[in-house]
Amino acid sequence: MRNYHGEDCHAKIVAALNALSPEGVFYGQYVGGDVGLVSRFPIASTVAVFDDTKTDSGSMMAYRLSCPGGREVTVCSAHLDYKHYALNLVRGYHGGEPDWKVIDDDHDGVPDRGTDAVAILQYNRESRRGAAIDAFIAFAQAERTAGHAVVLAGDFNEASHLD
What we know:
Elements: H1 9-20, E1 27-28, E2 38-39, E3 43-51, E4 58-66, E5 72-80, H2 87-91, H3 117-125, H4 129-145, E6 149-155
Parallel strand pairs: 5-6
Antiparallel strand pairs: 1-2, 3-4, 4-5
């Protein structure tokens, strides 16, 4: 979720939820990138783990939540690159860049399926999803060392290993 034109979408969502909730206790905060978090627990602190939104290559933000009993949990919200979806190449259409159209270079009406494993892997590496996950691992290790549980959730724009 991006806050285009300076509009704080999180504040609107939290206000709407609080108006509908008998307890009226929701929290949310925009940190940056194109992700967000709405929580039933107060947000104690935030930090950017990975932010490549200037190149539209995804982001990951961390929210430390103050949970009942004095425990703190860090939740990372991710939205990773969607433009270099290499799985689509083997299906015969562009993975997102420059478009999502069918690849039909010989104009026979049949998708040209990508079969060059080196090219497919290179296209996938261009996504910077690996860099985002590396940043998360380093961040999570530091959090765990400090005694905080860490949760990672979001839209990874990555296929299952079964695909």
